[in-house]
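Handout, page 2. Input:
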Amino acid sequence: MRARVSELLAEYRIPSAVIGVLSDGEITDFAVGVKNISAREPATTDTVYQCGSVSKTWTALAFMQLVDEGKVALDEPVRTYLPDFRVADPDVSAKVTPRHLLNHTNGIEENYGDPGEDDDVYKRMVDNIAGAGQVHPLGHTHGYSAALGYAILARIMEVIDGKGWDAIMKDRLFDPLGLTSTTTRREHTDQNRAATGYLIRSLEEGPILSPLGHLPRSFGPGGNVNTTARDLLTMAYVFLNEGKAPNGTRIVSPGIIREMTESRVPIPDPYMFGPEWALGLIVCDWHGQTVYAHDGSAVSQSARLRILPESNIAVSMLANAGPRDSFYRKVFNEILADLGAVTIPDLPEPDPTLALDLSRYEGSYERPGTRYEVAAEGGKLHLRFTLNPMEAQLLNKPEQLEYELFPISETHFLMLRTIARGPQTVAIYDSRMCRTVSSTSIAE
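Output:
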């Protein structure tokens, strides 16, 4: 596998990857490539990467400890713990719950301004959304929240525990799990072990040093955990062993693990990941087997985690370049097939027999933090969206991106990006009071 991954890294121009496999309680990990191109420093199994949105699974697990202790109830209003909590819609202000935040059904626009980098960042984010509107009605559909939802959860944790989210994560999770390589702040990471992030804007150009070394602190609970492939699997072990860590420490009760995995809402696009979202985890269906997952991208680093309870297996991958879906699929499928486990289903093919009234799809669509335009031209459907100027410059792309959509069904489409990035699916659907596009990040 090391030789095969080395070939794939060269093909996709990714500088390095560290891969870990947890099987029957034992972790095997290996590293390929360089963590820093200019210094030609090889990546090792101790190299620390930014795991992006896989941070949400860490935060959800720590938050559920409070539920386990009876200090928080999933279906109590957020106002029970944050009395001054308010958004533009009074009904949402009064009724939104931690469960809505954990499973991304709150619908609150990511309109929190610039909360800064100080220790009160999550309090500021909560204060700053007093005028934030709704992208969709509370609880009506799944709409992925990149930063805000989990920042509100972090603020609840801070109020209950009486200390900052960073300290809470260390005290509640990292130390009990026996982790010495996992942190929530870039400055707390041993820089001698930290991978340098790179952008891959094209295969021809290859990796270039990212001008943005890490995400803002506002993304902390939803995106700023730094870890190793082995530490990530140590957390996954808890889900495979009814709440216990490898060292025997009980992190949460078996009932909490059941709650996290069995409390689910449907995902409008079931193809890229799976049909449902649980509490801090995506629920996938791989040829009839349930698999739990989360992915992460921290601008120039990426993470993949898959947990297969029926096989008692988990697989993790960390890389110091942006996500490449086809790369991850090739690597994981070879590992899983070698272990005799179920493999990742292919994306569906477009259906050329579908005769759609394309005018029905034209218009503006939103999900939290993102707005899209869909237009029919020349008998074809196109999706457009606008990058902010900094993001466009970072990715060396025009500010407006456009992709053709190929129909899979009346609501689902295949969108072809570059060869390196591979295809992805997109769901376009009406949700009461709103029109919504559901997809992974198209810009990446």
